[in-house]
Model the fold of this input.
Amino acid sequence: RDRQYNGKIMFWQSMQCGAIITVICAVLSIFSIIVYFKIINPDYVAFMISHAAQKAAENGENIAQAIKDAAQFFNLKSYMQQSFAGTMFIGLSLTLIISIFIKKKSRLWQD
Done:
């Protein structure tokens, strides 16, 4: 703010800058999920589904339903959506809060 825009920044300028950064981070978070699922831990989905089935068996619940529910939740598409939405929500929320505090309008007697 102090180095750009002649030391002044409007609320919407700050929101726009934060929104751009948030979108970039959200897109990068999708790539990090892909790297995790495909390279770092490719057995994650199978492990989590088997873990859900094991817990269902221990608790006397329907194992087939537990496997179905786990397969819907523990998959690449679901995690990518959650990552993107979560990053957007947190990023835009922080952008809003920060924009409220850093805005600095010009004063008539300083111009």
Notes: The two ends are 17 Å apart (CA to CA). Residues 1 and 77 are 38 Å apart (CA to CA).
